[in-house]
Amino acid sequence: MRTRLPSGTVRRSAYDTVALIHRLLAWTFAVVGLIFLTVPNGTVRFINAVGDVFRVFPRAPESELRFWLSLGVAYMVLVTVLAWRISTDARAHRGLMPILAAGKFASSFTCLLFFLFDRPAFLYLLNCLVDGSIVLIVLGCYGWLLAADATAQRSAEPARRVKKLLALLTQTMVPDGGPFPAGAASQQLDQAVWRYFAQLHPLGTVALTAILYVIEFGPYLFGPRRCRFSQMSATEREAYLAGWETSQLAPRRQLLNGVKLAVMLHFYDSPAACAAVGDDGSYLRSKLLAGPNAEFHRARLQGASSSR
């Protein structure tokens, strides 16, 4: 069975990957800047030769003036330092990414203008495409980190409204004082289910939030009366969920059954539920500890026993 990484692990992986990308960019900028400095006209001749293959681009002229070369090398030093600084700690120096992207955008856009309005040389087109691609890479990394942080924050604690909906749903499925004296509220089942979805997938809590809102506004479409799930009485909520379970629409049944499976698995995993049905958990423990995820379950069970 494939085990999903928790959101914190995914976020660390994102930062490590972004740091590696910017370290590679820094080395690339440094090498290219050194080539520009040592063989400027040789660089132009090489790119002209590549452009000659297409037989449509005029050759870019060489130049003996070194003033623009000095400015170009200074720019390459700057982007090298920026990329390297980001690579040392992508989280702390994430704010430098838009600055790096802005520099590369200026280089790409000006070359596009020169290509369109000055000389359609392959040199201009190539630099426009290369630096434009770097802009997309850097901004993509920046957006990736923002998304990873946002997902981690959502996974850590649900919003107040979402937390209320999840509590109502779990308490309707396993009410206190029902078949079991200790129900969802006593067992804090809503928190356990939220943590489960957070560990299931980086976007697990996003999916759970979407499901809860579907259930919240479902009565406007399915009844039993036109109001939100959170505005129903306990009896109405039970009848409403029972309608989902017996619906002729397969997606509707499967959606609720998937949530119910997660809720009930965590409920029957609690010591109070096991004691209520006369199960000491030994059979299930033996199966888990003999399975492919034995180390994970051993650590989980040891943690649970030490916390009690």
Would you kindly provide a written description of the structure presented here, covering whatever features stand out?
This protein has 308 residues and is mainly alpha-helical. It has two domains: 7-156, no CATH class; 160-277, no CATH class. It has 15 helices and no strands. It has helices at residues 7-38, 40-52, 67-88, 97-117, 122-156, 160-173, 184-187, 189-200, 204-217, 219-222, 234-245, 250-268, 271-276, 282-289, 294-307. The chain is elongated.
What is the alpha-carbon Rg in Å? 30 Å
Number of helices: 15
Strand content: under 5%
Through-space gap between termini:
29 Å
Average pLDDT confidence is 87
The stretches of 5 or more residues where confidence is low (pLDDT under 50) are 1-6
Q: Based on Cα principal axes, name the global outline.
A: elongated
Q: How can the largest sheet be summarized? A: none
Give the class from helix and strand content and strand pairing. mainly alpha
- Give the H and E element order: HHHHHHHHHHHHHHH
| Count of domains | 2
Estimate the helix proportion, in percent.
over 70%
Number-wise, the strands total 0
Can I get a quick summary?
By secondary structure, this protein is mainly alpha-helical. Helices cover 75% and strands 0% of the residues.
Q: Topology, pairings included?
A:
Elements: H1 7-38, H2 40-52, H3 67-88, H4 97-117, H5 122-156, H6 160-173, H7 184-187, H8 189-200, H9 204-217, H10 219-222, H11 234-245, H12 250-268, H13 271-276, H14 282-289, H15 294-307
Helix pairs in contact: 1-3, 1-5, 3-4, 4-5, 6-8, 6-9, 8-9, 8-12
